[in-house]
Amino acid sequence: MKDSYAQIVNSSVGKKVAGALGLPQPVELRRYAPGQDLLNDRKVLVVGGQSADGLAETLLDWNLEVRRHPESRTRYGAIIADFTDAATPADLQNGALAVGAALRSLGTCGRVIVLGRSTDHEDDESSPELVATQKAVEGFMRSLAHEMRKGSTCNLLKLAPELGPEHESVQGPLKFLLSARSAYISGQPLSVDPAKPHTVEADAPVDGKVAVVTGAARGIGEAIVRRLHDDGAELILVDVPAAGEALSKVANSVNGVALQLDITQKDAGSKIAETARKHFGHLDIVIHNAGITRDKMLANMDENKWGSVLAVNLASQLAMNRQLLDSGALGPNPRVVSLASTSGIAGNRGQTNYGASKAGIIGMVSAMAVDFAQAGGTVNAVAPGFIETEMTKAMPTVTREVARRLNSLQQGGKPEDVAQAVGFLASNAAAGINGQTLRVCGQSMVGA
Amino acid sequence: MSQAYVLGGNRIPFARSNGAYASSSNLEMLTTAFDGLAARYGLAGQPLGEVAAGAVLKHSKDFNLTREAVLGSAFESSTPAYDVQQACATGLETVWGLSNKIRLGQMDSAVAGGVDSASDAPIVVSEGLRRSLLELARAKTLKQRLAAVSKLRPADIKPAAPTTGEPRTGLSMGEHQAITTAAWEISREDQDELALASHKNLAAAYERGFFDDLLTGFRGLGKDNNLRADSTLEKLGGLNPVFGRNLPEEATMTAGNSTPLTDGASAVLLGNREWADDHQLTPLARVVDAQTAAVDFVQGEEGLLMAPAYAVPRLLERNNLELKDFDYYEIHEAFASTVLCHLKAWESEEFAREKLGRQTAVGSIDRSKLNVNGSSLAAGHPFAATGGRIVATLAKQLHESAQETGKAQRGLISVCAAGGLGVTMILEADQPTR
């Protein structure tokens, strides 16, 4: 929907008034378009020791100019800060201050990518110093993200111990975070493990893949369908029969196949597998997007409101994932992406049922990561924050306006932003990401 | 000769008239039915042999209704189309005609359908007004114009209300059927029981998700809104008769055991086996044969809706089948008593002798195989859309049943229509190859 406030503060008079009063000044985010340059400004400052040297070649391949030292009177499209070698708190200072010195040179909708280490591996015997230092890198990134201006974002890639920043498994996630596809993602950590196959295709990352999207008739589901279609996938669109009219319109517009199905049916997963097998031979990508809200304070909650939300949002996904794994219909590198919510992370008043179901999703993807890894694939979640949809359009004006501004980008996200994150996790570019939940919330302070 | 198969179907939920679809036109509903079919089977932008559909209550502006619906739908725009109009048999007739073209090898695929809106019905100006307006249009001088206008009478302003009455008798279909019902001595209880079974069967089919791939939601409806899953014999028994109240016999036909006026649309996908294979579609059932008949109801020789009682024996004879040789029967429930009259006629030796010229009765059927997924009494009856509903529903049932039993399954369709018409058809699901 229209963000009137953003329009006003981006007019010449509005800009002055908002600046003088210290009001939020959201800028229009740079969003993905096929064939566009990776960054607004081609120059990338790479901060860090020797381990960062290998990155230069990758960045040059992406048509970027690499700088290892700050230059005066220049503008950077991105700053990449490599802390993968940091093992003690003292190792952080130089890099952190170098980023700080360059921040004023970061252009509109610029990117800061922090590279660190993941330290929670099973066979890992990391020292307390290393664990503390790498956790400090995460804290640094989160606070820096709050300081970003003019639509810029700051995110962290936590690399597995054996991965150098130049490793192929890192390139996909790095390119995604640099690109306009990650416009509404900020303040987020993502762990990257070595994995195959990995690609860093920019314009058709899921070319030829067969994907199913539930709740596909409207809103975020429809945006995911269009994203995956534009990114090259064949689609099966699932929604309840009552939404059939809208579902068939979306399906026909992407030459997809509509499957009307109540996903809480016992055999929903088998029916999806059967449809995929019949029309396309197999299934590569599963997007669990269908979800409902039945908000009530817990004191007023009834069996129906609690039960239906848990059944649709959580139990159905557990059952479908199990059936899909058992069906034999999945391709060699299956990708599952579930829609969680920031309400599932921080909770939300009036949403004990919804919050429980969405937190359950975060647990589910974490627990099923092993099962899908054994099948050659991944399972992850995306947790949207305030997204401009029909649902948020129905919110009371003041509540909506507050929710919209209380994030580092000072604006609501678009369904397209969620779809981009889903599309990334559904692609082989994200082969090294498994069992995780990626927030698409502009670093929201509500439901944080 | 090649074979024609039912490959799938789609309809919008049927809605009681002047309700959920009151502001939807035939064109909009038919287009939506086509779009849902295209979406279900991935047919957007795919070439099709031909599309045929029709409506009973049709505006004159809809002279090319089906072609217009194709152009507005996701179907490839170069798909040819034509309209059919044969009262309530329209839908079944389109399936018949198109499947014959497929069997003759003239095309490999087709979509048959039908639509009707009793809500958005044409309103016709009176005959007097129409004549005056035409004369006015032809007039060249002021004098001629005045002469044309001067013939208008106040009564001419009143429009002719839409009616389902028979042009030659002036009687409504219900009144016609009431005469037949009385003649065949069909009891109120039997009619109510048949109506109840229709509701129970339709509700159960929805309950098990049977219609998930036969139907596309429309205007917020996910299922037929005439369906009364909680209906009982007591509730049905409490309704007052609405037809046959002027007859000497007891009036038995109520709003509960007669179909209501309904809005809706349906479509059926047909194709030969090669086309089905090329499009990763499963043939559900083969169109085996069909037979039409008509009766002289004008002189009172036979009941208005009795033609299927004649068509079925001819169809059976040509295919060397007996009435009991079917796994499922779909007899359109225009009224509960219509179905019961047909069944009684087939069981009657007298009817066989005097009307059919046979020595023995046609036979009886196992009632547990009749309209097992509900029929028009529960779903409603948007005239031209009913044939498509029945064909798709039966084809899916036959296929499912063949998969479960491992045996070929045969089904009989019978649809009565205004004008003393009836169309009947045999569908067969082949034995599954394992």
TrEMBL record, chain A:
Belongs to the short-chain dehydrogenases/reductases (SDR) family. This is 3-oxoacyl-ACP reductase. Pfam families: adh_short_C2. Residues 209-390 form the Ketoreductase domain. GO terms for molecular function: oxidoreductase activity, acting on the CH-OH group of donors, NAD or NADP as acceptor. SUPFAM superfamilies: NAD(P)-binding Rossmann-fold domains. NCBIfam families: PRK08261.1 (NF006110). Transmembrane segments: none annotated. PROSITE patterns: ADH_SHORT.
From TrEMBL, chain B:
Residues 281-428 form the Thiolase C-terminal domain. It is an enzyme of class 2 (transferase). Residues 5-272 form the Thiolase N-terminal domain. InterPro entries: 3-ketoacyl-CoA_Thiolase, Thiolase, Thiolase-like, Thiolase_C, Thiolase_N. The active site is at 88 (acyl-thioester intermediate), 381 (proton acceptor), 416 (proton acceptor). SUPFAM superfamilies: Thiolase-like. CDD domains: thiolase. GO terms for molecular function: acetyl-CoA C-acetyltransferase activity. PANTHER family: ACETYL-COA ACYLTRANSFERASE FADA2 (3-KETOACYL-COA THIOLASE) (BETA-KETOTHIOLASE)-RELATED (PTHR42689). This is Acetyl-CoA C-acetyltransferase. It comes from Rothia koreensis.
